[in-house]
Amino acid sequence: MTYRTPKFALASIAAIACLALPRPANTQAAAPQTPADDFRTAERCANCHSNLKTPKGENVSISLQWSASIMANAARDPYWQGSVRRETLDHPESSAVIQNECSRCHMPLQALADQAQGHQTELFSRLPLRTDHDPAAADGVSCTVCHQIQPTGLGTPDSYSGNFTVAAPGTHPRPLFGPWAPDSDNINKVHVLASGYSVAQAAQIHDAALCGSCHTLYTTTLGPGGKQIGKLPEQMPYLEWLHSDYRDRQTCQQCHMPAVTEPVAIASLMGKPREGVRLHTFVGANFLMDSMFTAHRDELSVAAQPSDLAAATAQVTSFLQSQSARITLSSAQLSASDLSFAVRVDNLTGHKLPTAYPSRRAWLHVVVTAADGHSVFESGKLNPDGSIVGNANDADPTHFSPHYMRITQPDQVEIFEPILGDSQGHVTTGLISATQYLKDNRILPTGFDKQTASPDIAVSGEAAGDPDFTAGSCTTHYAVSTNGAAGPLHVSVELLYQPVGYRWAHNLATYQAAEPQRFVHYYEQAAAKSAVVLAHAETSVDPAP
Q: Which UniProt keywords apply (predicted)?
């Protein structure tokens, strides 16, 4: 397991506590000496926030959970690295700006330290990232990023795209915000001595707007010569949430950081049990990247152990399969030559399904079989290479499949996805070339009014005019030939989900650089298992009397 607390570390901290309590005024021992010291890595936090167990013996160590999460590995993400390289090759005159902007959310410790010194953050000169060589860059979205975010501007456009506010460089002690106040002033002074940070209770740590500062991302569209020609709402889960019923029901943290069901201490040294401690697993949607961290751990310099990474992948997969969607089959009718039925997908999340990065897609895999088991109709089959049978975009990068209200042929597939377009209206997967959404029929959360939604979260394409594509659900109607098969017929429907679609992965293949080529290789190895089933329903249909 990662970040185990060595005995000497606990002994050292205990010694600090014993020495510090009689002399609480001497708080300069851990004073930051450089801008990098303003943003210390998780290893410092792990000294006290490890070896935490519930009364039933469950290990809920904050550092352990975080180390195997997508947050900890945000800078090591091979798809992110490959995609940033692609953008710098598409826009070479803006390479430095692109690396700096993309590091703000994926490599924030280093980005904040560089910003304090008036520097731009470089990505590629630092690869491969290693915790022992370049700790701030390798630490991803670390403890001292989220817990230093001040309430200033949260929830407003000024805070979006990673423009959150932290204390000014050189502030000492720097405030770390959490859900509880320290148990005593002396304990807080010990915390300052041990870490350089002072603990303060603050409401923003519970606020969805804190998450929204990075998960409301606008990318600047660049034209020839690096000229700014537009802006793309690249990912908008926070604004989608605000436009849904979930804004009054559940925050990001309540869903993606489940609460421990028993009282538990948050520190192994002088910590007392607390109610409502939240797990730092950050369960989300990117099980594919979790599996790549396991399969290519050494090459990506991942610090977490394989067993912890495997556990994280299992947690994310279970989360997706239990809390994402529900499928209902209805109105099934079988005649001598045709079978008709309706498939309704209910979105159980507080944002679009799928949401965030536009490589993500979900789709309906429908199979109709006869009583003897032979296939009568199939739409949406996943190929071993990660492509979808019948999907126009997987077959040709210049085309895409529309949103369907009614499906009659096997090569018609209901795919819930965003499709980006450039300034000429051409399909693209280049974020910095994109200006618009040619299609966005991702399933809406409950309470989402597509008529009043802002342009940044609007429905695009045929779904905008589909009366069965509405708040919380989408219903697709099927009318297919039975090809002479006699009833009863069996109908099986799956909602499949893929974090990185085939086209998004393989559009990197033409870029002759290490990072894009590496990711395509990883994807080809993982493609057959690049999707999971979010929901399933089936029924048997007898002929009409």
A: Signal
What is the CB-side half-sphere exposure of residue 272 using CA atoms within 13 A? 6
* Two structure tokens written together for 526: 């993982």
Q: 457 vs 203, 234, 241, 244, CA distance in Å?
A: 27, 10, 10, 11
Cα separation of 467 and 403, whole Å? 12
- How would you classify residue 331: left for phi > 0, otherwise alpha for psi between -120 and 50, otherwise beta? left
State both tokens at 96: 């430095």
Is it true that the peptide bond before 128 is cis, omega within 30 degrees of 0? yes
| Cis geometry, peptide bond prior to residue 175 (ω within 30 degrees of 0) | no
* Residues 457/239, Cβ–Cβ less than 8 Å: yes
460 and 496 Cβ atoms separated by less than 8 Å: no
Distance between CA atoms of residues 154 and 208, nearest Å: 9
Residue with the two structure tokens 């200033």: 152
Instruction: List phi, psi (to 5°) of 116.
Output: -60, -25
Q: Tell me the residue length of the chain.
A: 545
Is pLDDT above 50 for 305? yes
**Cβ–Cβ under 8 Å, residues 381 and 365:** yes
**Of the candidates 133, 179, 136, 129, which has an alpha carbon nearest to the alpha carbon of residue 39?**
136
Mean pLDDT of 124-145: 95
Residue 348 in 3-state DSSP?
Answer: coil
- The model scores a pTM over 0.90: yes
DSSP class per residue in 366-429 = EEEE-TTS-EEEEE-PBPTTS-BTT-HHHH-TT--PPP-SEE-STT---EE-EEEEETTS-EE-
Q: Please state, in angstroms and rounded to a whole number, the distance separating the CA atoms of residues 500 and 524.
A: 12
Q: Of all helices (H) and strands (E), which one includes residue 325?
A: strand 325-334
**Residues with Cβ < 8 Å from 285, sequence gap 6 or more?**
316, 320, 354, 355, 356, 360, 497, 499
Taking only the tens place, the pLDDT of each residue in 166-182 is: 999 989 999 999 999 99
d(CA 344, CA 327): 6
Q: Read out DSSP for 362-382? A: EEEEEEEE-TTS-EEEEE-PB
- The answer to whether the CB of 62 falls within 8 A of the CB of 278 is no
Q: How far is CA 62 from CA 40, 279, 385, 495, in A?
A: 16, 7, 37, 33
Question: What is the per-residue pLDDT for 34?
Answer: 59
Distance CA 365, CA 498 (A): 13
Q: pLDDT digits over 484-537, tens only?
A: 998 899 999 999 999 999 999 999 999 999 999 999 999 999 999 999 999 999
Q: How far apart, in Å, are the Cα atoms of 184 and each of 199, 263, 271? A: 11, 19, 11
Helix axes 7-20, 185-195, angle to 10 degrees: 130
Residue 372, CA distances (Å) to 201, 375, 376, 487, 503 in order: 65, 9, 11, 10, 36
